[in-house]
Amino acid sequence: PFAPTNEVLILQTGVPNIAVRKLARERLADLGGKGIPLIEKILLDRGSNLYQRYEAILSLNGMNTAVSDKLSDEGKKAVAEATGHNDLNTRRAALRYLKDHPTPKVVKWLNEFSEEQARKDGKESVGYKGLAIARFEVLYKIGVRKKDTYGLTSQPDPRMQEAYEAFEDAWKLQPYVDNERRQISPKALWGWGLALNDHWVLNGKSDSGLLTKAKQKFQQMIDAANPKTYAFPEHIKKAQNYIADENPVHLNPIGAQPTVVYYQKLEDDGGVSRILPKLGLPFLLRTSKRNKLPTNAVWFGEGIAFEEVQRIAAKLVKNGIEI
After folding, report:
1. Distance CA 82, CA 73 (A)
2. CA torsion sign, 51 to 52 to 53 to 59?
3. Which of 172, 134, 166, 133 is nearest to 147 (CA)?
4. Which of 60, 92, 97, 245 has minimal Cβ neighbours within 10 Å of its Cβ?
5. Which pLDDT value is given to residue 140?
6. How far apart are CA 277 and CA 76, in angstroms?
7. Is residue 27 exposed (0-12), middle (13-18) or buried (19+ Cβ within 10 Å)?
8. Please, what is the angle between helix 50-61 and helix 73-82, to 10°?
9. Taken in order 212, 218, 224, 227, is the CA torsion positive or negative?
10. Nearest-CA neighbor of 131 among 179, 172, 82?
11. Which of 132, 72, 151, 65 minimizes the C-alpha distance to 105?
């Protein structure tokens, strides 16, 4: 089939015809790392039109995150700037990219663009609020990552304090990220409470002050959340259950169990598959795209108790799986 040249591909991302743009966007994404220079050329060219910027960012979102992360700092900065664009679709596409690549550097850029936007059009402008939502989501992601990489150890670690600070900074943006139809800001308090809970658990539940602070933070979240408009109403019930429990076990609803998802790998030689039935938890088997590497980590999402993660990791290690 006919393959357009790079210059033609760039031009096709900017035409009014949706079908042509879609095809060009998909071809850029399929190029993977080879498509990054073309995307950067679009993003860094002030002459690029709205269609081109939008399609370039969508192409990034269509790539594996490890590949799209190869975008240069200047390219990432251009995506950060796009979260303050007047076009809603462009803002959303840019936000999706930043949520997959949250770093302090991105927050710095967003702060700079926000200050500029406030001077230019005020804090009630569409651009400023778009940048505020981007700052909120990136800070929240940073907080979660810092919290989750604190590790299965009770040793002092600055990452937990960094998690608290990220959630606190996100919460400060509350006046600019909520509206009458949708409220998201209490999510920052939810994450903050999770971090305090995890810190308490990792310290062997010996510091009652951390438990008290976690319950206070969850109560603050409940007080701040509007059940009719809060985007994550399940947080409210989980927080209420946590506060009512004198010795909280985890943040999942009573009776709920986490599901273990295992991506099967040849290098594991069936070791993990033999251990899973012994965990007493529901599990799913998936095919891994990275078969040449053995299992060496346990990843978990929000609300999963550290105790449960510790138990699973310990079981794997005991049976020869190097986590």
Report:
1. 14
2. positive
3. 166
4. 245
5. 96
6. 44
7. middle
8. 120
9. negative
10. 82
11. 72
Are 279 and 315 in contact, with CB atoms under 8 Å apart? yes
What are the tens digits of pLDDT across the range 189-237? 999 999 998 888 877 788 899 999 999 999 999 999 999 999 999 999 9
Reduced DSSP (H G I as helix, E B as strand, rest coil) percent helix, strand, coil of the chain, to 5: 60, 5, 35
What's the rounded Cα separation, in Å, for the pair 294 and 203?
30
Give the span between the Cα atoms of 214 and 194, in whole angstroms: 7
Encode pLDDT of 287-296 as tens digits: 776 666 788 8
Q: Are 137 and 167 in contact (CB under 8 A)?
A: no
User: Per this entry, what is the length of the chain?
Assistant: 323
Dist CA 115 CA 110 (whole Å): 9
DSSP track, 235-275: HHHHHHHHHH-SS---SSPTT--PPEEEEE-GGGTTHHHHH
Provide the β-strand partners of residue 260: 283
pTM above 0.85, yes or no: no
Pairing of β 283-287 and β 260-264: parallel
CB burial readout 40-79, b (16+ within 10 A) else e: bbbbeeeebeebbbbbbbbbbbebeeebbeebeeebbbbb
The phi, psi pair for 283, rounded to 5°, reads -140, 155
Reference 142, options 178, 98, 111, 184; nearest CA is 98
CA pseudo-torsion sign 124, 185, 55, 109: positive
Give per-residue pLDDT as tens, 16-57: 999 999 999 999 999 999 999 999 999 999 999 999 999 999
CA–CA gap between residue 306 and residue 200 (Å, rounded): 10
